[in-house]
Design brief:
By secondary structure, the chain is α+β, with helices and mostly antiparallel strands. The chain has six helices and six strands, in the order αβββαβαααββα.
Length: 167
Amino acid sequence: MRIFYPLAIILGLIGTTVAAQGTFPTVTSKDLNGAEHTLPRDLPGDPTIVFVAYKQGQQDDVNSWVYALGLDPARGAAFVELPVVGRGASLMRGIIDNGMRKGIPDVNMRARTITLYESPSLINSPLGFSGTDTIRVLVVRRNGDVLWSTSGPATPEGVSALKVAFK
């Protein structure tokens, strides 16, 4: 029984993380304040915590990480949120961005929200991900190297693993 418990913890940690792989693709878009960014070169830190979401309902999962890590958009650890809304949505870019701006009154948080009007596969494929049913959480360097990644809402094990990777 004593051996089983530590083994279960180790397996749980392994199950919450996806092996870091690939290189974050180069994409250019604007944050919700209108500033243009070419990622990963213009990430706010080296490394940066990157939250990739595909659906509006996934914001709660992103927030679970932000709150668990105690992230503050005005200071502290570098992070960005990347809503990937698809190429077809680019025709409604103004409406979508204005709607998001209304939902995010904090100017500092708007600067950390960069909407990608690209196909989800542009982000997912180079990183070895598939689908859009869950968020992705990555630690990325400005050269595109992915140091760590996982999917889904924050867990205690995932938060601990991210903190180790982010150092």
